[in-house]
Amino acid sequence: GYTRYHVPKFLFDQTAEGEEERRKQHARRQRRDPSLGDFRPMPKTVLFLDELNLAHEDMQGATHQAIEERKIGAEEFTLHDNVRVVAAGNEAKAGFHARPLSLAMLTRLAPHVDVAPSLDEWVQWARGAAVHPTIVAYLQQHPEVIDTQRDVGAAALKNARGIATRRTWAKASAILKSVRDDEALELALEGAVGRGPASELLQ
To answer: What is the signed CA dihedral for 8, 10, 12, 14, rounded to 10 degrees?
Structure first.
């Protein structure tokens, strides 16, 4: 059977029952205030299950019902027709503590798409997020080090002080902005993106 849980309000709001409850509340308010306007149906929405393969097997099991039958919780509320379920997770082989998804889950989640932002997309995000311009310029010149985790074995990842990824480059930006001592800066950057990229960045 499925792991049972009671549905929190934010999730209840994504169900057909939730919309019906809102419709009734709107009708009651509209009788008191005719100028309230028409009821607005639920817009198209994505229920995003992030890092699904980091979840315990019991929690993964709880999502089976939502994905396959579009039912959620012990009450078995029905997801609204405007809700689409999308899941994301890291590759188990990339050195993360990910749990392989069961065959049943994999077939329920089809189709599967590998997604990774391009360098240009990351640069666009980085400029909008005020990532240090030195890092942006460095990665434009050395795109091969924007993400090195796929090139490092699982054992090395486990023992590494720092690995260059899009996430850790953003952390390196905060380090560049806040650390003033040269020795401390180098050590901190090594701890974020690894010795090689940190040394090149500071040259």
So the answer is: -150
- 81 within 8 A of 16, measured Cβ to Cβ: yes
Q: How far apart are the C-alpha atoms of 91 and 52, rounded to whole Å?
A: 11
The segment with the largest mean pLDDT, out of 16-20, 145-149, 164-168, is 16-20
pLDDT tens sequence across 72-92:
888 899 999 999 999 888 776
Query: pLDDT tens digits, residue range 3-34?
Result: 567 888 989 999 999 999 999 999 999 999 98
Reported pTM: 0.68
Answer whether 60's CB lies under 8 Å from 20's CB.
Answer: no
Residues 6+ apart with CB under 8 A from 195: 161, 162
